[in-house]
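Take a look at the protein record below with the fold in mind.
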Amino acid sequence: YKGGVGSSSITLDGGVIVGALAVVNALGSPQFGPADLQPSARSVVPPIDARGRAPVPQAEDKPARVEPQGLNTTLVVIATNAVLDVAECKRTASSGHAGLARALDPSHTLADGDTIFALATGAVALDRSTEQARQVSLITLQSAAAEAVRLAILDGVLAAESITTAAGHFPAYRQAGE
């Protein structure tokens, strides 16, 4: 399938916002779950099978020529308004890979160049009143980051339009029966 650009954001208690911007051109197929079957802002309800997997493209949907290895990748930026140090940003970016794995199957293949970065504006302080409060705040933020990445990737897949180039036809993701 042709990839696209997608975004998502999640607002946590205390005014912390975690957002993700994804540029998707993955080798794997998108994985839409039951919760994703609600109409989105794009008014698309993707098809899934009983295992929650997207259908494999049919022969007529495949590009006329197979892309050379190394041209597939998903690039993601996670941004939050929370106060995070460098190590916490690195851990948040690492947490985002869970969202990538939830959104695409297979993910992190030898043919993908997946990369996730994280940044923090430092506008909203996390609860660091105790060690336990600090850990809960970071776990909550990083869980939200993984979900924001998953949703941004799926949004990018749905945003993509078909394209025909000299290399072949690259179809957009579409519903069964379209």
Q: What stands out?
A: Helices lie at 86-103, 131-159.
